[in-house]
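Input structure tokens:
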């Protein structure tokens, strides 16, 4: 019941009681500055429902912050997702923000890289058993048919959940996004080596998918292409991801259990953020979990690079010939061969004890206390010493799971891909 209604009932009862008892009536006028949702007054008599003062927001909530958060008694932009516009559909900590995944995007079901939701008219729909060329919600087509039809008007392919067997490379010839939580591009073993997804001189984005490379190459960018993976997984290949003179972006993405190496950038522009690169390589692995060479540039931050191995040299991170890469606020732990090549300039966070720069520039060589590394769970325990070890200047607002950073505010954030609740 709204407060105004409760007060009206209370006033009637009190008036009758006063008239019957012949007593003087004192009326408490409702306060308009206490708002639960836009325009609604609230007076619950305190948290316990007793006679204590009600939580208030003063002055009245209006304009860009029309809702009152009673817990903090501050005016906020939103209290729930329905208060937010389509271009910023998620309500987090009282602020309308970009979508975190496809589930927050209603009818279209596609969260774009900029945090907005794709308009339904932009989307071509594919299914594991799709047929025809309509590529609509009611008549989804096959994956390759949907991708072949990408153009300036319909530049998004949405995959329905399920397995999509691959016997060759998926290589769009027009810029576009391939999205689909619950869908797996599954390479078929045997035959010649191929990349499951390739960006060859074109910009390709992949969100929500699992790329199961089955001994092949997971993803590849070349000839000035740009490959952007968000909320994706690349696993089980000979090579996880390769970018040669191209752009490679891994955000909230995992590269795991590839036998040769995890990610290799040669003359690449990289953005690796809130990523997990783990358990790549083997006794025969010939490069690290992450190798950046030949003048690669970019940023590696708030990522976890763990339990990777190589037959010789650093098994976690190599940076020879790429001094321009910024590497900060990460957890690099449990990698073979000292873990981190001496040429890498690493600041803030956790580093393997074999790294010559350990203990300097905000780094610590200390067990980060993963939840269960042996089972592949590289979240941090509540008592992790990685808590608060990120660069104080970090502006990364969420973690691998889309949860807010820092917690508690104002920080600093935790190092690595996970922010402890």
């Amino acid at each position: 019941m709204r407060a105004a209604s409760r007060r009206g009932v209370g006033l009637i009862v009190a008036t009758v009681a006063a008239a019957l008892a012949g007593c003087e009536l004192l009326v408490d006028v409702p306060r308009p500055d206490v708002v639960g949702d836009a325009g609604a007054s609230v007076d619950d008599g305190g948290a316990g429902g007793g006679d204590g003062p009600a939580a208030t927001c003063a002055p009245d909530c209006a304009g860009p912050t029309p809702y009152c958060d009673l817990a903090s008694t501050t005016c906020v932009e939103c209290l729930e997702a329905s208060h937010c516009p389509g271009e910023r559909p998620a309500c987090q900590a009282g602020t309308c923000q970009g979508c975190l995944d496809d589930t927050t995007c209603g009818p279209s079901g596609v969260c774009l890289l900029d945090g907005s939701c794709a308009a339904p008219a932009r989307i071509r729909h594919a299914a594991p058993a799709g047929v025809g060329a309509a590529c609509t919600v009611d008549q989804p087509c096959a994956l390759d048919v949907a991708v072949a039809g990408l153009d300036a008007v319909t530049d998004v392919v949405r995959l329905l959940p399920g397995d999509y067997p691959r016997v060759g490379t998926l290589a769009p010839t027009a810029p576009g996004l391939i999205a689909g939580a619950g869908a797996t591009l599954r390479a078929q073993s045997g035959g010649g080596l191929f990349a499951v997804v390739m960006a060859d001189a074109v910009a390709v984005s992949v969100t929500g998918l699992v790329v199961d490379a089955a001994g092949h190459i997971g993803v590849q960018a070349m000839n000035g292409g740009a490959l952007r993976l968000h909320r994706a997984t690349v696993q089980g290949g000979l090579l996880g991801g390769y970018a040669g003179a191209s752009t490679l972006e891994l955000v909230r993405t995992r590269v795991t259990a590839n036998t040769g190496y995890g990610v290799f950038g040669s003359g690449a522009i990289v953005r690796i953020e809130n990523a997990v690169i783990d358990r790549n390589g083997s006794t025969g692995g010939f490069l690290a979990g992450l190798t950046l060479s030949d003048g690669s540039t970019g940023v590696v931050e708030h990522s976890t690079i763990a339990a990777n191995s190589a037959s010789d040299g650093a098994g976690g991170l190599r940076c020879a010939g790429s001094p321009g890469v910024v590497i900060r606020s990460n957890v690099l732990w449990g990698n073979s061969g000292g873990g981190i090549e001496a040429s890498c300039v690493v600041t803030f966070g956790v580093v393997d004890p074999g790294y010559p720069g350990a203990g300097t520039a905000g780094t610590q060589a200390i067990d980060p206390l993963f939840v269960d590394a042996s089972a592949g769970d590289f979240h941090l325990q509540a008592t992790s010493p990685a808590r608060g070890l990120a660069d104080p200047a970090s502006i990364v607002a969420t973690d691998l799971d889309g949860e807010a950073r820092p917690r508690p505010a104002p920080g600093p954030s935790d190092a690595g891909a996970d922010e402890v609740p």
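Confidence is low (pLDDT under 50) at residues 1-50. The first strand starts at residue 67 and ends at 69.
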